[in-house]
Design goal:
By secondary structure, this protein is an all-alpha fold. It is built from seven helices and no strands. The structure holds protoporphyrin IX containing FE.
Amino acid sequence: MTRVRFLGCVLILALSVSALAQGQKAGDSLYKRLGGYDALAAVTDDFIGRLVTNPQTSKFFTGFSDDSKKRIRQLVIDFLCQASGGPCVYNGRDMKTAHAGSGITEADWDASVKDLVATLNKFKVPEKEKGEVLTLASSLKADIVDAKKKKK
Ligand code: HEM
């Protein structure tokens, strides 16, 4: 065995042991690899916390009662849980209906994605899973950014 191949085998073994140590199996859902429900809820809370305090996006979250905020938080968790292959059932509105007419612009979207990256970094989400979460988010962009506000 060449030196490079040997080092490659050691690396793969080390990564597998590290994944197993976290109780993960190859082929696990993104939900499971992110750490399950509590991890997803903590990530959601941090992300929402950033959206409501960021001067670029805070205006979208004013005027909601505490109960409405709790409801939105729960719906976002349910949505992300279901979308990442978890056991939740999302009973909210589709993304287009929920955000239509809100006036979310490309600049608001870009600021939100930066906040999402900051959240994922804070929770030390590995690059692979971070990429999958960002791919999921960008697949929703067309439904969330207000059609009238899209760059021509
Ligand atoms: C990955 C991106 C996003 C996801 C997965 C997401 C998901 C959701 C979900 C599940 C709801 C609840 C839907 C319902 O009430 O039935 C919601 C509502 C809402 N979202 Fe988002 N959202 C995203 C991005 C954004 C962004 C970027 C903003 C603004 C900057 C935003 C602002 C809102 C607001 C204001 C509501 C409440 C709408 C209302 O009840 O009137 N969302 N979102």
